[in-house]
Design goal:
It holds the Pfam family ABC_tran. It is a multi-pass membrane protein. The chain crosses the membrane at residues 34-58, 78-95, 257-282, 294-319. By secondary structure, this protein is of the alpha/beta class. The protein has two domains: 16-332, Up-down Bundle (ABC transporter transmembrane region fold), CATH 1.20.1560.10; 342-589, Rossmann fold (3-Layer(aba) Sandwich), CATH 3.40.50. The protein is built from 20 helices and twelve strands. It has helices spanning 2-14, 16-31, 35-68, 71-120, 123-127, 131-148, 153-173, 175-181, 185-222, 224-229, 233-285, 291-332, 342-352, 398-405, 452-459, 465-474, 478-481, 501-514, 531-544, 579-589; strands at 357-367, 373-382, 387-391, 413-420, 427-429, 438-441, 450-451, 491-492, 519-523, 549-553, 565-570, 573-576. The strands form three sheets. It has a six-stranded mixed β-sheet with strand order 6-9-10-3-11-12, with helices on both faces. A hairpin with a 6-residue loop joins strand 4 and strand 5 (427-429). The longest helix has 53 residues, at 233-285. The termini are far apart. The model has no long low-confidence stretch (mean pLDDT 85). Bound molecules: adenosine-5'-triphosphate (ATP). Adenosine-5'-triphosphate binds at residues 127, 368, 370-371, 374, 392, 394-400.
Length: 590
């Protein structure tokens, strides 16, 4: 017997129930802040239960008064009955209102929290998720939780209290009636157990398919141009139909299970109701109870079966909520960036900026989690006031090196620091907070939709129009911005719509310059420019910037002529090229 108990206990500890419990605990760490509203909601719900029980008792009295012709008590009882019924209606509406407000607040809190945590999650684990999947988890899963959170503990408590109080009253009057009224209970419990196990896998399946579909929609809409250019419209429409078919089939299975269980429960409920009805009639016929008590019994037996069905109906909702909590926990569990060194880095910068700052990478080893080793025993030194080029064949590791410099990726070994260029014993260690010393222009479009000025002020909210224009001039972007009717208040569409690739690159560089960080990283950020503009731009940057360094990755040898140092990334190393090597590259190009 003990062995059997231990076996079941272990199953609970290891199994789905333990997981559900962990997910529920996590969920309530969010909901805790709203304890006052939730307690209020629960109390109003319990109050509603009390009122509906009193209404049942009053209906009994009313029937007894009518059948017993006690007309002097009729008006008083009737008014009380109507008042309690109205109070019940009003209370249930108040409850709906409170539930909506709590649910909205929880929705906002969860979404804001997950949003921040997603942005703070380390880049590499986050990159293993499709953005469609992240979006589904952030929007749908958070909504499932906020919508359903009140179905779980408060409603569970209300339903249990309602069930027990109704049972108590019936037991008080007639134990046999009570036994009959809860005869459906074992079937309902069995049903909830079956529902629980069947729905778990369906739920995960459905969430995964939702995420896949979201990813498909998102990619299709953001790649409309490619779809049109390759004449892929029929293919994408077909793909959508396939996804929809898969979704429909899954939902059909889901619905069938729901319908079957509710038909079955209704059948059991009817059986119980009719039996209660029969027993009630028999009791009245044999003179044991009055008509009023029979009415009370019938109404309470309805409450008992109804509440049991509600409790079983909570199973899918509880599974939905805990599945969604689990999916959000997957994201939240991922390692997060530590920005706590920000004040230390600010102080270091203020103290040492006059001497200039240098970056030192020593003996770096880096491999992507699901990829090959990109760097092995690599050193790199970035000195102040220099333009440094990183060159190398495609796929060799230029962008990866910039991500390491930005602390977006963390090398598996090696040391990284930012030092006082004149006294290298004064330094700060690398951490994500180091990014405040960097400006970055990634490959591809990096502008947000909004005006040019809004994009610029994202990095320096108090920038004046003049400051913005100065940076646009340095980045050779003023050439075209000043011709726009709205100048710096012209709107940039989604993904830079309305501007050419080279124009967007110049706007991105202007924004990076506005940040005035000591290190500027340009990842093929001038690739769409003609060589004359590219030269002018890089020269402007070095002439007009205060002390600082610019690191450019490029496939264009012409850029090398204005660089102070050139590193070639080859065979997992950064190799400093001699001026002869650079000359050779340039002459090969000619
Ligand atoms: N998220 C990632 N996960 C796994 N491997 C990656 C990831 N990103 C890049 N890589 C791999 O790392 C290597 C270096 O890529 P990286 O983008 O740094 O090259 P690159 O020199 O900048 O190339 P390009 O000149 O084409 O921009 C490549 O082999 C690439 O496949």
């Amino acid at each position: 017997m003990i062995a059997k108990l231990q076996f079941y206990l272990k199953r609970i500890q290891d199994g789905r129930l333990k997981e559900m419990w962990t997910q529920t605990l996590w969920l309530y760490s969010y909901v805790r802040k709203y304890w006052f509203s939730i307690v209020l909601y629960t109390l109003i719900g319990l109050g509603g239960t009390g009122i509906s029980l009193i209404t049942s008792l009053l209906s009994r009295d009313l029937v007894d008064i009518v059948t017993g012709h006690k007309s002097n008590e009729l008006l008083k009882t009737f008014i009380m009955y109507i008042s309690f019924t109205l109070a019940n209606v009003i209370l249930s509406k108040i409850l709906d209102y409170i539930a909506t407000i709590i649910s909205l607040k929880i929705d906002n809190a969860i979404k804001a929290d997950i949003f921040e945590k997603m942005l703070l999650t380390r880049l590499e684990p986050l990159m293993s998720y499709h953005t469609g999947d992240l979006l589904t988890r952030w929007s749908s899963d958070a909504s499932v939780i906020s919508d359903g959170v009140l179905n779980w503990l408060p409603d569970l408590l209300i339903a249990i209290v309602r069930f027990l109080s109704a049972l108590g009253i019936v037991l008080y009057y007639d134990p046999l009636f009570a036994l009959l009224a809860i005869a459906g209970m074992p079937v309902s419990l069995l049903m909830s157990k079956t529902l629980l196990s069947r729905m778990q896998s369906r739920n995960l399946e459905s969430a995964a398919l939702n995420a896949k579909m979201m990813g498909f929609h998102q990619e299709s809409f953001s790649n409309i141009q490619t779809i049109k250019a390759f004449d892929l419209i029929p293919l994408y429409v077909k793909k959508l139909h396939e996804y929809q078919k898969e979704y429909l089939q899954l939902q059909k299975k889901y619905q069938k299970l729901g319908i079957l269980s509710s038909v079955f429960l209704s059948f059991i409920g009817l059986l119980v109701s009719y039996s209660c009805y029969g027993l009630g009639i028999y009791r009245v016929w044999s003179g044991t109870i009055s008509y009023g008590t029979m009415t009370l019994f019938l109404s309470l037996s309805g409450t008992l079966t109804g509440t049991l069905n509600t409790l079983v109906g909570m199973v899918p909702s509880a599974i939905n909520i805990t599945t969604s909590s689990g999916r959000l926990m997957d994201i939240i569990k991922m390692p997060r960036e530590d920005h706590s060194a920000a004040p230390k880095i600010d102080a270091f910068y203020q103290k040492n900026k006059q001497d200039g700052l240098s970056i030192s990478l020593q003996d770096i080893q880096y491999a992507y989690a699901h990829g090959d080793t990109v760097f092995e025993h690599t050193d790199l030194v970035i000195e102040p006031d220099q333009i440094i080029a990183l060159i190398g064949p495609s796929g060799e590791g230029k962008t990866t090196m910039l991500r390491i410099l930005l602390a977006l990726l963390e090398p598996q070994s090696g040391s990284l620091s930012i030092q006082n260029a004149k006294d290298t014993s004064v330094f700060v260690d690398y951490s994500p907070a180091i990014r405040r010393l960097f400006s970055y222009v990634p490959q591809g479009n990096a502008m947000f939709s909004g005006t040019i000025a809004q994009n610029m002020r994202n990095v320096k909210p108090d920038a004046t129009d003049e400051e913005i224009i100065t940076c646009l001039k340095t980045a050779c972007a003023w050439d075209f911005v000043h011709k726009l009717p709205d100048g710096i208040y012209s709107t940039i569409g989604e993904r830079g719509r309305g501007f050419s690739e080279g124009q967007v690159q110049r706007l991105s560089i202007a924004r990076a310059l506005l940040k005035k960080a000591p290190f500027l990283l340009l990842d093929e950020a001038t690739s769409a420019l003609d060589t004359v503009t590219e030269h002018r731009l890089l020269q402007n940057i070095m002439q007009k910037r205060a002390a600082g360094s610019c690191i450019v990755t490029t496939h264009r040898p012409t850029v090398l002529t204005i660089c102070d140092k050139v590193y070639a990334i080859r065979e997992k190393h950064c190799e400093l090229l001699s001026s002869e090597d650079v000359d050779k590259i340039l002459s090969n190009q000619q």
